[in-house]
Amino acid sequence: MTTLARTPVTGLDLTGFTEQEPGVWTDPAGLVLSVHFFPLVPDLPAPLHEVEPLRHGTARDVAASGGGLIEAAVESVDGVPALRQLVKMPLRSRQGQAFLGSWTLPKDRCSTVVKVQAAEGAPTGLREALVMQEVGPAAYFRPHPYGGGDRFGGLPYHVADLEQWDPRFPDHPLTLVRAALHRLGPTLTLHEQFKSLPPFTGPTPPPTGPAVAPPPHPGPAATPPRRRGWFRREDVP
To answer: How far is Cα 221 from Cα 223, in angstroms, rounded to an integer?
Structure first.
């Protein structure tokens, strides 16, 4: 097998998708599928075996970007531990939300991400309004399940995003993204060299000890390392 878009991904069920450019596909329902490889230490807040700190830190980081983490789970993809997550972000150019889902496969010094996303069209907020009408305002909003009592900010957590409502809204972008994640995960295969890399053991701790004075004639400033974050505001229309 050949890799997809110069990533460690060697196989992926692309049924229904049309390639738009290397590593990016779309389908008639408006889904955008992309594969990525980041040659950087993953910026996940905790290793995958520490599920609760991982969920808490991810929810906090997504909220700090203005969005909301809908769900996160650690599962196996082609024998490799992976983080499956669903995120909602406000659209920048118009009213509504975008929904982004991913399989993130972190290793010690790199990661592979398969991402799928879709945005609301007109009318927006219909799913939320109908679910609130059915369950009532008091039962609609809930504390974030990964918050541990903390308040994150960002987009609020509510029951309309739960998977139990997807059959009622089969064409909603959240339904489509979640279904695509479930379908794509079992079809994803990886290069053996990537699979054999050391596992991700957690974020790199900040340096400790006394500050070191700069040399008297420093050279050009070094470029700071770029963060791997799989969701970025420029991805949201």
So the answer is: 6
Beta strand pairing status for 24-26 and 97-106? unpaired
| Structure tokens that stand for 107 in this block | 């290793």
| Domain spanning 9-195: CATH 3.40.1000 | yes
Sign of CA dihedral 87, 92, 93, 95: positive
- Half-sphere exposure (Cβ direction) of 132: Cα atoms closer than 13 Å: 11
pLDDT digits (tens, 9 = 90+) for 80-102: 999 999 999 999 888 899 999 99
The torsion region of residue 114 among left (phi > 0), alpha (psi -120 to 50) and beta comes to beta
pLDDT tens per residue, range 142-191: 999 999 988 899 999 999 999 999 999 999 999 999 999 999 999 999 99
pLDDT, tens only, 125-137: 999 999 999 999 9
Cα Rg, the chain, nearest whole Å: 19
By three-state DSSP, how is residue 107 classified? strand
Return d(Cα 212, Cα 78) in angstroms, integer. Answer: 45
The full set of domain ranges for the chain reads 9-195
2-53 residue pLDDT tens: 568 789 999 999 999 999 999 999 999 999 999 999 999 999 999 999 999 9
Tokens of 130: 């109908």
